[in-house]
Amino acid sequence: MPRDTIAATEGSIEETSIASSTRVFIFGITGRVGRMLATRLRARGAGVAGLTRSLPDPALHADGVTTVTGELGVATTEEITSMISDWDVIVFAAGSNAGAQSVTNDIDDAALQRVSDAVMASPGKRLILLSVLPEAWRERQLSDDEEHYFAVKKRAEVALTRQPIDWVILRPSLLTDDPGRGTVALGPAELHDEITREDVAAVLEALVLEPTINRRILEVNTGPTAITEAVGHVARSYQA
Fold first, then answer.
1. What is the pTM for the complete model shown?
2. Which of 40, 74, 148, 216 has its CA 20 to 30 A from that of 15?
């Protein structure tokens, strides 16, 4: 068997092993990106759970996802610590999406702080934050709520980077509902254009399964590089 084929096969087996042993808790699991991420991780054999605001979600349960019912905006640090106690990687994909300022304050700022405090109280866990590119929407005339949203997202990122935990921040370009391309541009700084939610979910999946990437801010945009290759390149560059 050719050497490159052997390497690819071994890599695939290793990824499958990592996925099947990884347990992921998603805040924002009923959002479009969160739901896509849950589906992708379950297809790889990972254990997945998430917080939902209402009754159990039949579609998530059909995928084998465990759900906890509650309100992220009012959940205490102690309650969140209990929610994530059995899970290895915490993904924060919740957000107000530039809605009312009070919701932005409650979810994108205060709730993220409580989640990061819960992760800090639970050694050995990783926290991956789905954030936003600072340049997003700058071609528009932004409303007061939207300006507030971007200011809060930046403040929340700064606070997270100062926590003594294993974190990753992913900043995507403008999200679209187009079919995923499977290729991206990923790195510490990328141009702002647009990217599909499906591709963002795939990048999050790859980051979940690449534990060597930590305490890094990454930006992602439409690009030419296969997603697994792009994430692998980032991992290798930080190990060099």
1. 0.91
2. 216
Residues in the chain, pLDDT under 50: 4-10
Only one residue has tokens 């996925």, namely: 19
Structure tokens that stand for 233 in this block: 């390149």
Q: What is the DSSP string of 72-134?
A: TTT--HHHHHHHTTT-SEEEE----SS--HHHHIIIIIIIHHHHHHHHHTSTT-EEEEE---T
User: What is the structure's pLDDT at 78?
Assistant: 98
Placement of tokens 């390497």 in the chain: 7
Sequence-distant (≥ 6) Cβ neighbours of residue 63 within 8 angstroms = 38, 39, 42, 48
Residue 229's φ and ψ, nearest 5 degrees, are: -65, -40
CA dist 114 to 6, 87, 118, Å?
45, 16, 6
Question: Domains in the chain and their CATH numbers?
Answer: 3-239 (3.40.50.720)
From 73, 81, 83, select the one nearest 107 (Cα to Cα).
73
